[in-house]
Predict the structure.
Amino acid sequence: MATRSLVLGLGNAILGDDAVGLRVARAIADRWGDTEGLTIAEEERGGFALLEQLAGFERALLVDAIKTGAPAGTLHRLGVDSLPTQRTATAHGINLRMALEVGRRSGLALPADDAIAILGIEAGDVLTFAESLSPEVENAIPRAVEAAGRWLRNEEEG
């Protein structure tokens, strides 16, 4: 891999389906963790915390739960200005777009907007304390890992 790439799983490990981004990141690490130039990380915060993770990378794939009304387990490919996911939406009043703008104004080396992809996995319950995923979301993990693989290989459908 010629560029410094980040796969960042987002979520909350104790809020049911909201943990799917974390679980997908772990599965990606199991499969591609030794890929040169690739960093795989997890983050439970959003907003400015995303800047800390994104700084210094040329491209990034954020993996997170999303609620659009689609069936649980549906995969969504999003960009920076798309419908926000659970962790890219707001955290202390700042969304991903605003965080990137502040970071760039502050001189942080961040990936360009078109080099940031978001893989949203449609969640069911993200409000109930639980350490397990719903079956539909659990079953989406292999498809999400494959989608991440397409992104890693720079294929159009990431």
Q: What stands out?
A: The CA atoms of residues 9 and 25 lie 5 Å apart. Strands lie at 5-10, 38-43, 59-66, 75-78, 116-122.
